[in-house]
Write a structure and sequence with these properties.
Length: 276
């Protein structure tokens, strides 16, 4: 088998994940695979390939997954705490090619889990499970007892060390953040991601109540009506593509619409790409 087969599997798996925006948005999430290559002296060394920071998963190719020497990353488990700056410095020094793309801020999370293949996604349904007071209980009901639950911790060294201690679980749900799953087989790792997300969606659908249709009539003054018609004429004077999304229609009928639209993004990680 080629030394770079794990990298090839990683790229293919990540592109499948990246094409589903309910799993990751542009630049979000991170995936990894572990393997063994020959270094510049011909020595066989274990490496971790992990998605580069900010790379768009659906289009990322091999150069977007920098390789790092795994033994150097694992030596950091001896630390009890570490600042972000120090962590980034150590991780950068572990790069096989110093000119590679900067690796994910969550590189150590992937290193400290022993599995060969790891997926970390910011799935909408997983974030929805955790974004209320009973998030831990909802997660257990949706995914079962096999998944560990971690309250919100800022991505970095502390979170990476904690997740590494949960390796005997099927996966980990990170509150207000996302999902981490792993396997020794790339295809099975992907399927575990999809199965967990589907289970969360199925659970949420059992709780969903479709709002009653409400038709609101408001009197519009003649001056306002003329202004509206002029703006409409300008908008529809050219060919347009009209998309009707039933979900947005349902949302617009809710009594708590103002509270919902002002609530912000479902995960803090989405703030990098999604603005209010």
């Amino acid at each position: 088998m080629s030394d770079f087969r794990p990298l090839e599997e990683l790229v293919a798996r990540s592109q499948r994940i990246g094409h589903d925006q309910s799993l990751v948005v542009y630049g979000g999430g991170n995936t990894s695979s572990k393997g063994e290559i020959a270094d510049h002296l011909g020595r066989r060394r274990k490496v971790l390939w992990v998605k580069g920071s900010g790379a768009d998963m659906q289009y990322a190719i091999d150069r977007d997954y920098p390789a790092l020497y795994l033994e150097e990353l694992l030596s950091l488990e001896e630390f009890q705490e570490m600042t972000d700056d120090l962590m980034v410095d150590y991780v950068t020094r572990a790069l096989v090619d110093p000119t590679s793309r900067r690796p994910s801020i969550e590189t150590l999370l992937h290193a400290f889990l022993p599995a060969k293949h790891i997926d970390h996604v910011h799935a909408d349904s997983i974030c929805t499970l955790t974004n209320h007071a009973n998030g831990k209980e909802a997660t257990r009901e949706a995914l079962g007892d096999g998944f560990a639950y971690v309250d919100w911790i800022r991505p970095g060294f502390e979170l990476s060390k904690l997740v590494g201690t949960l390796k005997d679980h099927e996966g980990v749900v990170l509150a207000h953040h996302g999902l981490v799953v792993w396997d020794e087989n790339s295809d099975k790792c992907y399927q575990k991601t999809i199965d967990a997300v589907n289970s969360a969606e199925k659970y949420l659908n059992t709780l969903q109540k479709r709002p009653e249709s409400k038709f609101v009539h408001r009197d519009v003054s003649n001056s306002d009506l003329r202004e509206i018609l002029l703006k409409l004429r300008g908008k529809i004077g050219k060919r347009q593509v009209l998309r009707v999304d039933r979900r947005l229609q349902d949302l617009s009928k809710r009594d708590d619409l103002k509270e919902i639209v002002a609530a912000g993004v479902s995960s803090a990680d989405h703030m990098l790409r999604i603005r209010p």
